[in-house]
Design goal:
Distance between the termini: 51 Å
Strand order of the largest sheet: 1-2-6
CATH architecture: 3-layer Sandwich
Structural class: alpha+beta
Strand content: 15-25%
Oligomer: single chain
Shape: elongated
């Protein structure tokens, strides 16, 4: 009965999303480039596609799915203390900028938290 309910709940849209998610798990598609940065493609919060839901203003990337914000220069999350975004500054020719500290990219697990249910206020943490 449980298996039947599971398969009954799979809509064509959900299947397409899952197939797309696993199809893009190649190393070449883990990152995207925007505003002079190479950025990890999936939000560290709940894995939203930042090429679709990411908005960059004044060096801060905002995932518009749940309102999480990340400082591109450091990768620091401005919404939560335990998350970090991989963001690497690029030179004009598209190679990593010289003299910059290289971040190590680690794929963190998705995190459930109170921010999933509302958009955080615009106030920054002290």
């Amino acid at each position: 009965e449980y298996v039947y309910i599971f398969f009954k709940g799979l809509s064509p849209e959900r299947i397409q999303y899952i197939e797309g998610y696993y199809a893009e798990q190649t190393p070449e598609q883990q990152f995207w480039e925007s505003n002079g940065y190479r950025i990890q493609r999936r939000c560290p919060h709940l894995k939203a596609d930042l090429t679709r839901f990411g908005k960059i203003e004044d060096g801060v990337l905002t995932c518009t799915m749940h309102g999480w914000q990340f400082e591109l220069a450091t990768g620091k999350c401005l919404t939560s203390d335990d998350r970090k975004l991989y963001a690497q500054h690029l030179s004009e020719d598209g190679t990593p900028a010289a003299g910059e500290e290289q971040q190590e990219w680690v794929r963190p697990p998705a995190a459930k938290c109170k921010h999933c249910w509302y958009v955080p206020s615009k106030e920054k943490k002290a």
